[in-house]
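Researcher: Final request for today, and then I'll write up notes for the group meeting. The sequence and the SMILES for zinc ion follow.
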Amino acid sequence: MISPLNDIKSFSDHLNATSKHDPCEICGDITGRDRQKHNQENFTLCAGTPTAKKGDRVGPYICVNDNAKGHTTHIWILDKGFSQWEDDRKTQYLLEKQRRALVAEQERQTKIQA
Ligand SMILES: [Zn+2]
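Model: Predicted protein-zinc ion complex:
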């Protein structure tokens, strides 16, 4: 039987240890104690928040496990709502880029006609 702790361990092999250049997003640890993954969710294993509970928030992050089994390391990910906000922002950016390209193209055609 695979325990959740083993899952965390095998997963942490692919995570970056915190450092001065890459502090923990949750508690600011720089000693290498915490682990984080710089992907879309910014998966973070943080031992600096031993009293955190599932659903707790730190900035845009949400805690997704509790310490019912005495675990002091918590998993934090970027809240989905926040990711959605980011997606919206990307869409806005792309739309703006398209609009600018269109304007530039119109200006170019105007110059040709003139
Ligand atoms: Zn931390």
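Model: The CA atoms of residues 7 and 96 lie 42 Å apart. The chain has a mean pLDDT of 82.
Researcher: Thanks, that's everything.
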